[in-house]
Each structure stands twice: as structure tokens, then as C-alpha cells.
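Researcher: I'm preparing a figure for a lab meeting and need a structural model of a single chain. I don't have an experimental structure, so a prediction will have to do for now. The sequence is pasted below. Please return the structure as C-alpha cells so I can convert it later.
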Amino acid sequence: GSPNSGVFSIINKSWIIVNGLDFEGCNQPFYSRSIGVTGSSWGSVTIRNCIIANSLSSGIFIQGAYDLGAKPSGITITNNTIHDINGHGVFTRYGMSGLRSGGNVMDNIGVVGGGDCYGFFGNDSPSTQEDFIIDGDSLGSCPIKSHVIMDDQMFNITFRNTKFRGTNGFAGFDFSGTGTNIYIYNNEFSVKVANFRSPLTWNTDKGNQ
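Model: Understood. Here is the structure written out cell by cell.
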């Protein structure tokens, strides 16, 4: 991969399955990734049973549509192991819908670069991220940042049946964007927060949580 690209890149493609690959030691910078899904018209992409480890970059990066209008939909992320990376575990940016994620194990995320297990970003875009379900993950230490940050316009987002463990440097959930219909239930928190924040932190006055 090239800087700010990816080792495995999917650009505006649909009906793709990435299964059982091992990405070890990606030495590209923070904003590159081991697996990247980008563009405004991808859909029905599945990433499963992969290992991403010992990397300077983020793990799985998903970028959607910056502008209003049609946006990509349908990505499934299941049973992957991501550990000892400097960037985000799963990093989304800009408008998309229909993310389904579960059975993933993450640990030691953002150990130098300060990434989050799940980083949802894109507040500079008018588009939205919506209809996400994260169900049954195990999220370990994020020593600098948070297990989850939502810093975009987020609608109909569910986190359930997920274990939050280890140490984080900021919060379990950091709500920094706008959000409507955010559901968090049946989760287990066994977390040491390294500063004055808490497992759930509302850090915004931008919308309704």
C-alpha cells in the first residue's frame, strides 16, 4: 500500500468478501490502513475472520460519501482480531449506512498514535452515518483515547452485548458529534479510565442524545 491508502483497498466495488487474511506489521502512517473500503458507491462488503496486528496504521477504514444525496450502504465486519496498532481499530468517515459488526476482538489500540477501537468521524461533511449495529464485540485497552468516539452526525446507532475492558485514556464512549436514537444496552464495562472522564461521556452540545 501507499501512504494514506491501504494494503488491501476496495474502491467503489460491491459484493466483496474479505475472509481469513492476516495483515501483520503494516508500516504505513496513521491515516493509512490494512483494509480500506472507500468511495461513494460501494455496497454489500463483508470483512470476516481476519487478523490485523502490530501495525503503524489503522485496522479497517471505511469512507463513504462526503456530500448529501446517495451514499454507500451495507458493510459487515465479523469475527476479526485487531491488536497492537497505532491507529483506530475500525475507522469510519462521512456518509454511509448499514454497518453490522460483531464478534470482533480488539486490544492495545492506538498505543502510540492515539486511535480508538471504533472511531466514527466526519463532522466536516453534511452527510450522515446511520443504521449501525455493533453486537457482541470484545474491546480491550485504548491507552490514549476511547473505546468508541462518535464525532459525526450519527442516527440509529446500537451498541449491545459488548465487553469493554482494560484501560482507556479518555472514555468508554465519547460523544462529540450530533446523535439521534443512540442505543447502548446489555454491555459489560470493566474499564480503568486513566483521567477524570467516565465510561459514558457526553462532550457535545450539538444535538440530541
